Amino acid sequence: MKKVIFIVPLFIVFLLAGCDGSSPLLSGYAYGDFIYLSCATTEKVEKILIEKGDSIKAGQPLIVMEAYQADNALRIADKNYQAEMATLHNLETGERTEELNIIYSQLRRAQSAADLAKSQLERYRPLYQQKTVSKAEWEQWQDNYRQRQAEVNQLEHQLEAKKLPARKAQIEAQKLRTQAAKLQLDKALWDRQQLIITAPQDAQVYDILYRPGERPTAGKPLVSLLPPDRLKIRFFIPEKYAGAFHTGTRVKIHCDGCPQPVNASINYISPQVEYTPPVIYSTARRETLMFMAEALPESFVRPGQPVRVELAYE
Question: Is the pLDDT of residue 4 over 50?
C-alpha cells in the first residue's frame, strides 16, 4: 500500500500557528540599509586605512585618494588670494613711505627755488621803482617767481593725493575681488578635504570595493558601511492579522543559531497590501495578501538571515 504525503505550504503553517490563540509566526529576513561612500572626482586610491568587519567611529578616515591635482589647485588659489589681499592693502594705505620721501625731496628743492626767486624779486622791486631796470626785466622776474611758486603748489597737492587711499569705488571693487579669491581658496581647500573619505557615523565596514592603485569612476562606491541603526528585520503580515501589528509594536525575532529570541520593535508597515512574497509563493493560495513590515532589532542579526517573527506579549 502506497503512502500519501501531503505538503503544506510554509505560509499556511505560520497562519495555523495562531489558530489556537497564540501569536502567529511570520516569515521574514534580516537586511542592511547600507551606506555607500564614494569620491566626487576620478582619482586613484592611495591608501586603505580599514579592513572588512572593522568597527569604525564617526569622522574616522577610511580611504585616502591621490591628491596631486587638488594640492596644486589649493596652492594656486592661496597665491591668488594673497595677491588680491596685497592689492587691497596698497589701495587702502596710499603710497609707500619711500615714494613719499621722493616727493618730499622734490618739494624742498622747489620751495628753495621759489624762495630764491622771491628774494631776487624783492631786490629788483626798488630798482624797478627807480626806473633802473626795464619793465620787461621786472615782468620776467615776476613770472619766474610765479613759476617757482606754482611748482611748489603742484608738489604739495601731489603729496596730499599720494597720502590718500584710492577712491572708494576702486577699494570696493578690490574688496569684491578679494572676497572672490577667498571663496576660490575655500573651495580648493574643501575639494582637498574630500579626497580623504571619512565615516559619517559609527558603523561596521561591510565591504571594500576598490584597492590601492585602482582608479574608480567619480561617484562609484568605494566602501559600504552598515550602521547599527540601519540593520532591520523585514517580514510579512497576513491581512488576517494586520490589526494586531502597529508601528511601535514589540515583536520577538527567532533565527537559526540564535540562543534566544531577539527583541525588536516595528518602525514601518507598508500602507499597501501585496501578494504573498516569492519565498513562500503558492499559486493555490495566491489570494492570500500580505503587508510588508520592518522592525528594528535590539541586537545583531546577520543580514540575509531568514527569521521568524511573533508578537511579544509583556
Answer: no
User: What residue spans define the domains of the chain?
Assistant: 1-58+195-314, 74-188
CATH architecture entry for 1-58+195-314: Beta Barrel (2.40)
Torsions phi, psi of 231, nearest 5? -90, 120
| Residue 314 three-state SS | coil
Residue 135's CB is within 10 A of a number of other CB atoms, namely 9
CA torsion angle for 195, 225, 227, 62 (degrees, to 10)? -40
Alpha-carbon separation of residue 281 from 118, 181, 220 (angstroms): 118, 64, 36
CA distance 284 to 290: 15
Nearest to 261 by CA among 306, 297, 213, 208: 297
How many angstroms separate the CA atoms of 49 and 100, rounded?
Answer: 59
pLDDT digits (tens, 9 = 90+) for 56-80: 999 999 999 999 999 999 999 999 9
